[in-house]
Structure formats: structure tokens, C-alpha cells
Amino acid sequence: MVKMPPTVTKAIFLLLLVNVAAARADGAGDPAAITSEGGKYLDKDGNPTFKIGPDGKVDYYSYAGFVRYSANCLACHGPDGLGSTYAPSLVDAMKRLSYGDFLATVAGGKRDVSTAQTLVMPGLAENKNVMCYIDAIYVYLRGRADDAIPRGRPSLHDDKPPAYAIAENECMG
Amino acid sequence: MRRFSTKLMLAAGVSLSAASFAGPAAAQEDLLKMQANSADWVMPTGTYDNHRYSALKQITADNVGKLQAAWTFSTGVLRGHEGAPLVIGDVMYVHAPFPNTVYALDLNHDGRILWKYEPKQDPNVIPVMCCDTVNRGVAYGDGKIILHQSDTTVVALDAKNGAVAWSAKDGDPGKGETGTSAPMIVKDKVYIGVSGGEFGVRSWLSAYSLKDGTLLWRAYSMGPDKEIMVDPEKTTQLGKPVGPDSSLKTWQGDQWKIGGGATWGWYSYDPQLNLIYYGSGNPSTWNPRQRPGDNKWSMTIWARDADTGMAKWVYQMTPHDEWDYDGINEMILADQQIGGQMRQTLVHFDRNGFGYTLDRATGELLVAAKYDPAVNWASKVDMDKSSPTYGRPMVVSQYSTDRNGEDVNTANVCPAALGTKDEQPAAYSPDTGLFYVPTNHVCMDYEPFRVSYTAGQPYVGATLSMYPPKGETNMGNFIAWDAKQGKIVWSDPEQFSVWSGALATAGGVVFYGTLEGYLKAVDAKTGKELYRFKTPSGIIGNVMTYQHGGKQYVAILSGVGGWAGIGLAAGLTDPHAGLGAVGGYAALNNYTALGGQLTVFALPN
């Protein structure tokens, strides 16, 4: 990612917010897929992103992200990333978080414990069931934040790319 | 009042009944006697038989419509509030979720705080607690209040001033072992269960000395015979000895070591048979393909000797679970006429959607029937004693997530993983002979996949989405159940799952709470609604009643949360509604918000 002075970043952010109707944007900027690498789509900054076909068919990462989100995050963040009585909405959070922010929080955790609340996001860096799929989870939540992926299980998705299967096996061991 | 100086009593502004402070040897007699006194609520389950029935009858079907909030109390904690307070004499003991604050409230002064105890716990335990930092209540025995903290510390507090008498550590949250369940005290022992089925914890039930907190024995849910405290010749399942290595034989390799079988439900006790009863939970992981075999003794009803801990009989309800039908729900002990014969029965409403009636002395299976007609994963439980599959559920292959395999989505399984009923306990009225059961009416899609185990990290292995049964919009029912015949007598639909424990009373009124926050009273015979009051937050606590100063009170903890708060906050979607359908069902978020509060009700003077 290109490093910019904070004021510039903020200005761009505001600009993008105003432009939501025209071009979608989340905490990582414009999610439009520019390139792809073995079934994983990347935006103009090289961050992972989703790709949705005209029939609503989602790329494999978005689909795998739905599955892995539901297994590893839903128990706190609620169905479809919408938040719960226990943890905040990630659909909202992803409108603000960059790819780097996201990775840092999931790996390292986050905590806000006071007399008023007891919010603890566990650090998941050692959890293979999460970290081997972190890009998929990111892509899925990014798609949810941009309103590109609806609630529930995506009904159509691309086949599992061979590169994905190889990487998965290597990572899970 | 034997052991108190008058000065101390005056200072505390309370008088405690003499029975409460008799010597340690008398603890059992005290509790046996005390539980029979309906003015008090001396244990989390009301009585040892878990009836959650009160002989109090000032509040009746005729006058309950006039019920009013008498006083309220904020616990100062926002998370999900399960369980119910205790009342002993003039004092009420109220517990809260993490940080597990305990309050002693003076009933002579509208709940003035006599003492407060708040343990210091490492907040790292919070995210290890699957589905909220709930706590299901404290227990009383021998002048002590026993608290089971989130971090599995068991602490005994002096009931009169909150001073710590002893403390013991039951598990290690670093490995995913946490505490949510309410203790039970029988004679000189405190029984403590463990949570962590979603973290691969090989679970156990511990017995501690009430006197000083020494660990007396620990019985695991799976493993070698000695560690599960099973006698291969004497312990039976459905009348037959279980034989050697009954658990080990049903797991592949060492998988039993991370086998789950949590024990965080409610416990019951039969003083005549000297047996304690409880259920063990789901095997870990949720991916059935990764753990071939029956996975004994997960998903099992246990009857253990209250003193030695040895298992008398076991019954595994869901061998080789494929749906997370966690078997921890309460065992209600009631004597009932079945087939023209009076039987000592145990009634259990399992997550798997079957209501079981067993002989509690022998473990003989008498009735197993669906208590929600939507239940579809099994056609029935095989009741043919000569069949090789006697006592086993007849799984419908379409809904077998094991048969369908990894990375395959098995759709429309009823009930969902939260079960036709979860921990929210049912009540039994000896007056009507009916069981009053708070239920979920929710189905699911379930997709298992391969997971790897890391100590202290979630070990789940399946993705699921939930929704009401096809063509229906209510996500819960409050039902009356005839356990002799296995039949629903009446059923009141509820918009959300009913996640509150029920209370039956001699006044012919049954109480329960709803997730929107209503305390409701219904007619025990017909289910007709007689009263409702909207409390400040959703109810996942259990209704209790007591008498003070000659007047009957009803109390309930509000404070939405738990699994219900997580799953239903944003509302469920209807997968049958087609692409892009949003918010198919009501979102709990639109009805209630966090906040722990006790509301105490009474009739106007």
C-alpha cells in the first residue's frame, strides 16, 4: 500500500464516502478487482478483494470466507458479520478498517475491559483454522461491508481453484 | 442463630434461620430439610429433583393478572444473565456473569446490599467462553455460598459476610476450560462441571469437600474406565454391563483426549437412591468425519453414586453426534404412573429434540418421543428391546452430515444446533402431572469440514446457518408435555426461542421469560396467558419464587445474551426466500438491549 500523509488519506476517505453510490469503498478503498492470482482477486493496491458475477455467483475466496467466518467468528460476531450482544458488527467495522488493520486485529486481538464493558477479541495468530483462511475471511467480510455479498450462504460460487487447495493443504499440514 | 452474637446480627440487619448455620456434618440434612421449605429457594434448581415447582399459592390463576413490580436491582453487569438468585431466610444471593459479582441483599430493606464479592480474574478468559460470559448461579451449603467463576476457580464465601473460606482451581482457561455452571451441594460435597466442548476439552465432573475445598474425585466423560469412574461389570447401559474400555473402544486413536463431553448443565439428586444425575455434551469437533465411532460417553445421561462418584448406569442418547446436539440439559426426577405401574422416572428434554423418560434407578428407557413436531434428523428412537439398535436414534440419511461428508452443506436439519431446548430448564408440576418446557423452534444448514487442534483455540469444524422451520415464523414455543405418553398437551408459540427457565406453582400458574424481556404467567392447565410485564432487557434467566414476611414474591434476572443473544441479535434470514432476501425474521436488536437487572414481583397489598 502506498503510504500517504494522514490528511490526504482522510480526504480520500471522505471523497470515497461521498461516492459510495458510484464506486463502492470500504476501509481498504475501492474494492474493484483488478488482477487475480490463482483464483484470488486483488484490488488496485494489491489487497485481496471479492468478485461477483452478474448472476450473483461469488469467487471461491468469498465463499470459503463465509464458511470459515461462520465457523470461527460467528460465535461472537453473530451471523453474517452483523454483530451480536457479545461482539461488534464487522460489516460496520470493515467500512473503516484497512487490510493491515484487519490482519493485525485478528492475529493480535483487541481488548476493551472496563467497569462498563468486557470486550475481548482473542488473538488468533496461532489458530490455523483461522490464519490459513484469513484472506478468504477478509474477502468475505469486505464483500459484506460493501453490500456486495448478501446475508446467508452464497448460493452460487466458483469451483475450488487448484492453487487454493495446494495452499490450504500446506498451511493446515 | 446459634453461632451469632446479637451484635453481629444487628450490624448486618438480618436474622438468618437457625438451620442455615448448623455444623458441617448436618449440611445434607439441612439442605434436604431446607429445600422442602417453599418460603426459601435454597439451590439453583429449587429442589434436588429439579422440579422448579413451588408449593406457594398466594399468587393464583385468578389474581396473577394484578401482579406488580415490587422492587428492582441492577447487577452492574451488561452480559447475558442466566440462572436465578437464592433466597435463604431474610437474605437473597444474586450472582452475575463475568466478573462474577455476588451480592447478598437484605429482604427486610428492599434489597439493601449486605455484602458484595467481586473476584479478580484475568480477562483472557472472556474470549475462551463460547457464547458469552454467563454464569448459572451460586449454591448454598453449611453456611457457605459457593461460586464457580469463569476461570474455573471455585470459591466458598461465608454466607453472612462474604469472606473467602476456601478457594480451589478446577481447570485451566489457557486450554479452553471455563466455568459457567451452577454448583450442586450434596452432604459434604460440592459438584462442579466444566465448559469447553468447542475447545476440545476432555470434560469432567469434580467433587470437592464442602468443608475445605479438597478435590475428592473427578470423573471424566471419556477415557480409560478408571478415569471415567465406570465399573465394566457393574455399570450398565439399558440393563447390560458396559464392559471393559467402553469409552476407549469408541474413538479412533487418541482422539478421546480432546473429546469434549462438557458437563455444564444442571445436576439433580435422589436421596433415596443416593444417585446424582447429569448429562455430558457434544464430542469435539463438530466435524463427525474426524472422529469415527460412537464417541462414548459424550451425549450421555449419567447416574453416579453421590459419595463415591462411580457410575451406576449410563445412556448415550446421540451416539456419534453429527449436529452438535449437546446432551447437557437437566434431568427432572418425578414419580409417575406408567403402564399401570408407579415408576421412579427421570425426564430429560434433550437438545436432539427427543423427550426421554427413563427409570432412574435402573436406566431403563420407557419413553422417547419428539417434543417438537419439526424434529426430522431421526425418525424415532428404537424401542425394540430385541433389536441390535435398541435405544439408538434412527438417523434419516438425508440429514446425516457424516454420510453427506466434509465440505457438503446438509440443509433443513431440525432442530438446529441450539437444540429443541438448550440449558433453559423445564419445570414439573405434581398437581397437573405436566412438564412445562421452554423450547426453540429453529432448523439449520450444517457443513462440516476438517479442523486442526491447538490447545486453547476454538476447535469447531462446522459452519451452520439457522432459520425457523419451513413455512413458519415463530422461533420458539412454550409447551406442556406429558412424559408418561410422550405427548404435547398444549403449545404457545413465541416469536423468539424461549431461553428462560420455567417455574410451576401450586397456584396453578406457570411462569417463564422471553427474549424480548417479558415475564409471562400462563394457566398451568391450558397455557392461556394471564399476565405479562416487559422487564428492561431480554430474559435468559430462570424464574424463581419465595415468601418473605408472609408474602409471595416472584423474581427474574433480565440481561439478554448467551447463545440466544449472539444468534438472534441481528435476526435470522430465510434461505428459502431466494437470493438477496434480507432480515426474514425479527431481529432481537429491535426489541431489547444489554443490561443485568433483577425484577421482583408481588401482588398489591
From TrEMBL, chain B:
One GO location term (cellular component): outer membrane-bounded periplasmic space
Official protein name in the record: Methanol/ethanol family PQQ-dependent dehydrogenase
Family annotation (InterPro entries): PQQ_b-propeller_rpt (IPR018391), PQQ_MeOH/EtOH_DH (IPR017512), PQQ_rpt_dom (IPR002372), Quinoprotein_ADH-like_sf (IPR011047), Quinoprotein_DH_CS (IPR001479)
UniProt-annotated binding residues for pyrroloquinoline quinone: E82, R136, T180
Active-site residues, Swiss-Prot/TrEMBL: D324
Disulfide bridge partners, by residue number: C130-C131
Pfam families: PQQ
Cofactor, free-text remark: Binds 1 PQQ group per subunit.
Leader sequence segment: 1-27
Domain Pyrrolo-quinoline quinone repeat per the UniProt entry, residue ranges: 41-411, 500-554
Keyword vocabulary terms for this entry: Calcium, Disulfide bond, Metal-binding, Oxidoreductase, PQQ, Signal
GO MF annotation terms: calcium ion binding; oxidoreductase activity, acting on CH-OH group of donors; pyrroloquinoline quinone binding
